[in-house]
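Data availability (excerpt). All sequences and predicted token strings are deposited with the supplementary files. A representative entry, Pyrroline-5-carboxylate reductase, is shown inline so that the format can be inspected without opening the archive.
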Amino acid sequence: MSQQKNMSNNSNAHITFIGGGNMGRALISGLIANGLEPNQISVVEANAMTALKLYEDFGVQGIGALEQIAFDFSKNNVVVMAVKPQDFNVVARGLSSKLKHASAPGPLILSIAAGIRLKDMSRWLDHTRCVRAMPNTPALIGKGITGLFADAAVNTSDRALAETICNAAGEVVWVAEEKLMDAVTAVSGSGPAYVFAFLEAMQSAGEKLGLDAQTARKLAYATLEGATQLAHNSDEHAGVLRERVTSKGGTTAAALEVMKQHSWHEILEKAIDAASQRGKIMGDELGKN
Ligand SMILES: NC(=O)C1=CN([C@@H]2O[C@H](COP(=O)(O)OP(=O)(O)OC[C@H]3O[C@@H](n4cnc5c(N)ncnc54)[C@H](O)[C@@H]3O)[C@@H](O)[C@H]2O)C=CC1
Ligand SMILES: O=C(O)[C@@H]1CCC=N1
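Structure token line:
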């Protein structure tokens, strides 16, 4: 990932996470591994045990629930909104009352919430310095990918700041239209779950054929990793690589025929479309608040 930027250059950055659950934790892990000092990160986390674990694992300071804290926006130049979409409105309105006391232009707000649209978050926060991001959990090991969207009101330096933060978790892609964030969510935000489901199925199939669990797991995981890296490093379409594994009348052809009969390709496309539709519906519904 030669294009990744190192967070250690951002010696003045202070990032406050609101929500330190699964995805907040994954991003914090990536930022620390990428050179940000623990004292450059704070976490507003309603669950005391979750906050304590973040402190124990990464040394980042938990600062209780949003309602209980006074924000010092001279220090907090980035706020990452990492609560569930259903909690976003209440948290954003709570933050808005604190943003009123920030000197202009206030912090950059980076939302990672699925579905929540910029116009709604800007309205709830009464703040326009906002960027949408859709990361994924491989961020935990610096192997994530994040889709980003900002509207025309967001300047180049804020775009660069958002990109640098997300780069700490892995690669970054920008999309040109906000509606494409639902597609990013469906492909890469939710994507690790499809891959884990695929791994579960490959391992259990191996076990049903008589392999012990450890061997089946090793074969499945190494195959996925090797094939993915091969595809990543190749200029050829995945379909061409698939054909190279598939001997006429052989074992792979037998497996792919069953996958075809069960419309595996279409099922996956439908599943990803359902995730995208769900993102849109969440945006429509939650935007009514
Ligand atoms: N889990 C994933 O793979 C991904 C999640 N996202 C997005 O990230 C966001 C968070 O998702 P997860 O981390 O999975 O959820 P989570 O439930 O694991 O984490 C949310 C955290 O917010 C905390 N919280 C709730 N209300 C709060 C408040 N008022 N003040 C402070 N903390 C509060 C909760 O205690 C919890 O620890 C969601 O909006 C989701 O759409 C985006 C990409 C991938
Ligand atoms: O399932 C969800 O809604 C979140 C967004 C992407 C991954 N997890």
